[in-house]
Amino acid sequence: MQSLPLISVAGLNSEDPAVRAETARQLGVACREIGFFYAVDHGIPAEVMAGAFANAKRVFELPLETKQDMSIKKSPHNRGYVAMADEKLNPEAGADMKEAFNIGTDFPADHPDVLAGKPFRGVNFWPPIDGWREAMLGYFDGCLNLGRLIHKGFAIDLGLPEDFFVSHLDSPIATLRMLRYPASAGQIDREDGGAGAHTDYGNVTLLATDKVAGLQVLTRQGQWIDAPHVEGAFVCNIGDCLMRWSNDTYVSTPHRVRPPEQERYSIAFFLEVNPDSIVDPRDVVPSEAPKYEPITCAEYLAARLNATYEHRVEPS
Ligand SMILES: O=C(O)CCC(=O)C(=O)O
Ligand SMILES: [Fe+2]
Question: Where is the Fe2OG dioxygenase domain (predicted)?
């Protein structure tokens, strides 16, 4: 049985170009073959990760009414609370047995982009919990920096200038999503009852998991394999936007969450690029005939989210 590769991403920070190149090579193999890898030596302290899980738990413990006051249905910018069974990541399979809470890049209400109503430039909902905002924004920033570092590796592996993605990542669309799956093994007979089989939409996802099993990844050979918890590691995967940008050089791979034996928490950080960045395969793989037209990151993401959430589609 295949397993996901483990990569020490600290090598991308090395002063030695040979170490950076070797780390990027490992990353490139993973992104071309399975589209998933574990990132270790990533620099986010264990206590920061533990704190994020403690805070995620607190938000789900709030009364339902308080959570519904922060409903994602009230945000055009993909922020807030998603109630149990309100989402279908695989619309053909049925509702996901999970609840979620999203925060995005934090903008003040008077930021020019917010006032102008730019897509994905909105304010966050903040749960009424002391210290929550500061702790989660600290974790968000840690993930963002890790995502930038991993993009340096992508650039090296793809034969681009090391800083190719830097200008695309100065104010990116990014979503930190806390997830809670109730114990539901034996109650739902769908293998993907926690989260329906899907690919992620953005460039890269950095997922922190607790010790409860559930995540599975589809190999190129069509086999579902477990992606077990690895202490201190992020499960990272390529999203559809980077697959498109790289002209399918990197693959976004279907994954799902089985109904867990025990209550399960995970925290996903979905990183795209700046809303106005042009995602054009000609820029990333100039030697190949492009399979996709150029599109802005915001346009691409909006189209994908509109297909997932009924509430985002304007009633006709
Ligand atoms: O909870 C997990 O382990 C995976 C969640 C996931 O794939 C997603 O939210 O996109
Ligand atoms: Fe996912």
Answer: 172-273
Out of 3.30.1840.10, 3.30.465.60, 2.60.120.260, 2.60.120.330, the CATH code matching 6-305 is 2.60.120.330
Q: Round to whole Å and give the CA distance between 203 and 240.
A: 7
* Ligand 1 geometric centre to CA of 215 (Å): 7
Kindly tell me the number of DSSP H helices and DSSP E strands found in the chain. 8, 14
Cβ-proximal residues to 93 (8 Å cutoff; 6+ apart), any chain: 190, 192, 196, 197
| Statement: residue 313 has pLDDT above 60 | no
Q: Could you tell me where the beta strands, DSSP code E, fall in 130-275?
A: 174-181, 195-198, 204-209, 215-218, 224-226, 234-238, 255-257, 264-271
In testing the pocket of ligand 1, which one of 257, 258, 270 has its CB within 8 Å of the most ligand atoms?
257
CA angle (230, 140, 61) in 5-degree steps: 80
What pLDDT score does 310 carry?
66
Residue 92 pLDDT level (bands cut at 50, 70, 90):
confident
pLDDT at 306 (0 to 100): 82
Q: Could you give phi then psi for residue 278, rounded to 5 degrees? A: -90, 120
**Max Cα distance, the chain (Å):** 58
Atom of ligand 1 nearest to the CA of 235: 3
**In this structure, are residues 121 and 275 in contact, taking their beta carbons and an 8 Å threshold?**
yes
Atom 8 of ligand 1, nearest CA residue? 268
Global pTM?
0.96
- C-beta 257 within 6 A of ligand 1: yes
By the 8 A CB rule, do 297 and 272 touch?
yes
At 106, give phi and psi (nearest 5°).
-85, 120
Here the ipTM equals 0.99
Residue-range domain boundaries for the chain: 6-305
Say how far apart CA 20 and CA 29 lie, in whole Å. Answer: 14
